[in-house]
């Protein structure tokens, strides 16, 4: 095979590869927009992560007007079995910048806490989750988790 044909083959291979790559990204929606309100509610109670998403992006918006110190929201992912343990540690004393909680290995992913009109982005690594287990997401502003809670489906 001469160099000319090798060059054409490589170009063909690259363009097919790029087409496949682009279509696999557009076919899978590896992100969700979720919002928290001044009514202390998330607008969804279930997040699904497709098996084909290695990374999953959660965009948290605060649809209300109240400031972060009055009606702050974050989104925290943990195993359902660890829910009681984690929420028992939630305390104002840990500060808003820490989501009112200490560093805990049970907390798999934690976003920044935001107030009305703000938004924040959290990237989840699918490898951290095991499809045999159950996971939940909550807001860890003190008192919010009872209402601001949902299931994560892997
Ligand atoms: Zn909240």
Could you please describe the fold and organization of this structure?
This protein has 154 residues and is of the alpha/beta class. The protein has one domain: Immunoglobulin-like (Sandwich). Helices cover 23% and strands 25% of the residues. It is built from 3 helices and 8 strands. The strands form 2 sheets. The chain has a 5-stranded mixed sheet with strand order 2-8-7-4-5, with no helix packed on it. It has a 3-stranded mixed sheet with strand order 1-3-6, with no helix packed on it. The longest helix has 25 residues. Bound molecules: zinc ion (ZN). The site of zinc ion has 7 residues, from loops.
Mean pLDDT: 89
The CATH first-level class comes to: Mainly Beta
| Strand coverage percent | 25-35%
Assembly state of the chains shown:
single chain
Share of helix, binned: 10-25%
Radius of gyration: 20 Å
Q: Could you say what the CATH topology is called?
A: Immunoglobulin-like
What order do the strands of the largest sheet run in, or round the barrel if closed? Answer: 2-8-7-4-5
Distance between the termini: 48 Å
Instruction: Indicate the low-confidence ranges by residue numbers.
Output: 23-27
CATH superfamily: Cupredoxins -  blue copper proteins
Order of SSEs: HEEEHEHEEEE
Task: Assign the structural class, choosing from mainly alpha, mainly beta, alpha/beta, alpha+beta, or little secondary structure.
Answer: alpha/beta
Query: The biggest beta sheet, please?
Result: 5 strands, mixed
- State the domain count: 1
Total count of helical runs of at least 4 residues = 3
Shape assignment:
globular
**What is the annotated CATH architecture?**
Sandwich
Q: Find the count of extended strands (DSSP E, 2+ residues).
A: 8
Task: Give every kind of bound small molecule, once each.
Answer: zinc ion
